Amino acid sequence: MDRNPPLDRKPVVIFSSLNLAEAHLVHQALRQARLKATLRNALRAPLMGEIPADDARAEVTVAPEDEAAAQAVIAALEAQGQGDEWACRDCGEANPASFEICWQCGRAHVP
Length: 111
Ligand SMILES: [Zn+2]
What we know:
Elements: E1 12-17, H1 20-32, E2 38-40, H2 53-56, E3 58-62, H3 67-80, E4 86-87, E5 94-95
The protein binds zinc ion.
């Protein structure tokens, strides 16, 4: 057992997007696959336009040893997640087809 992993094993940015909903979707999928994914910059993305776009990207990171597994999860997600987005009735936010509730306000999707 490796109880003291080297300090240089920094998290790998496996996914980044200006679309926070997408980043949430990837993050959720990775967690469901039992990978230790972390969502970064989630609170900064809505500020797009006020700060440089590169700083506004939401990023999903995983441990280096999980990189390959995470890429497989994301590839599967992209393959199946090509459905239509839906717009929330309450806040108007666009949500990926696979979301059942609005990521922003939590309202259930009414088709
Ligand atoms: Zn909403």
